[in-house]
Amino acid sequence: MEHINVIVVGAGLSGICMAHYLQRDCPKKSYAILESRERLGGTWDLFKYPGVRSDSDMSTLGYRFRPWKEEQQIADGPSILSYIKETAQGNGSYDKIRFNQRLVHAAWSSEGKQWTLTIRDNTNETEKQLTCNFLISCTGYYNYEEGYTPAYQGKDTFKGQFIHPQFWPEDLDYQGKKVVVIGSGATAITLVPAMAETGVGHITMLQRSPTYFISMPQKDRVAGFLNKFLPQSITYGLIRWKNIGISLYSYGFSKSRPEKMKAFLINEVRKMLPDGYDVEKHFTPTYKPWDQRLCLVPDGDLFKSIKSGKASVVTEHIDAFTEKGIRLKTGEELEADIIVSATGLKILPFGGVTVDIDGKAFQLNESFAYKGTMISDLPNFGLILGYTNASWTLKADLSAEYLCRFINLLEDKGYAYGTPKYKGNGKGTQIMTELDSGYINRSKDLLPYNGDRKPWRVDQNYIKDIFAYRYSKIMDGHIEFTK
Description:
Radius of gyration: 23 Å
Strand content: 15-25%
CATH topology of the largest domain: FAD/NAD(P)-binding domain
CATH architecture of the largest domain: 3-Layer(bba) Sandwich
CATH superfamily of the largest domain: FAD/NAD(P)-binding domain
Number of helices: 13
Structural class: alpha/beta
Shape: globular
Mean pLDDT: 92
Oligomer: single chain
Number of strands: 25
């Protein structure tokens, strides 16, 4: 049976990040990347809907070790996919990817001191096994096979096309047609202006309740200025820290003075909408800023679409689908040729992999998150997840560095494995983020607990995490090491 020191699961933004640090910090360790799909890129290869883009600036969504060189700070999906692929090809990790290989089961043996992985080859549906010392999940957090769609009453009576953005038909013809997009999150506010600019007859964003929006220029003027005088590598670092600082300040201000932040955000939106527009109804949320993630509007494109008359917003509950569209609780009917249900994702921890520890099924929802990067009672296991209040890759970088430190400590001290052991007195929330988003609330029973104190409470603070991941002691009394 084949044996590899480290197995990375997933060849998306996180997996390629993890591969870089393994090559840099653990050059003597063999590793491979298992990717269930036929291409790398994860999210950025999967989503094909119009206008798909980042909802973070590329100075922070880009890797710390590889500067983003394009002018656009809010990048489109294909550009991000190219960036990931070029990174993998540039550092040699592309050759470590085993495509169409889905990890379905992982079994840990304390006696054998290793993982035995059952892998399905998606090209011929056969299964094989291999062993590894360390397993790292870089699968993201959602189900690639199924998006979330509410149980709409009368959905089958609708005579037009019904689409979930996760499975966008590449040949969809929406020229001159009436489109209703259900939802007001990141996907919806990307779709609406993109389709408005590319020939849709009229597009309506139908939301049950408003969301907080913040506009940001696609091109960073400060970066453009600095690039005239400094090497791009230096500019990238400066702009990265500028944006990290702004993000931390705005998040902290939102938590400490939510009413002032709310007033600021709504006032900024009001400036970009026509005089007399009902901002109170359509753009004033009932919750506090950062109870849910702020939605980024590059160059105010959503508001430009509304001002042009190509797009509109309706804030109302759905009663039922009809043959011609959607009937609202008010009795009004929104006619549509195409309905897009931009209603979110389904969380799927570990990519749906089942786990056994010494023959006993492991229950993730009974465990605790250690630094947000390891899980209690899982030996030699790592997890790469990004921030919810900042760019994903900021956390992925730190987590990857930490896991390499952990692997090297095992080698240096002569340990076979290390297992986080929760020793707290109580449980926090059964969730690894403070967000109150629908997709998280629907899946709380699938997630590990936050503990009652650090390092079992997950911080959403990059500055604090630099010290916690890069410089703190690994042997901190919370890990049980075995020779």
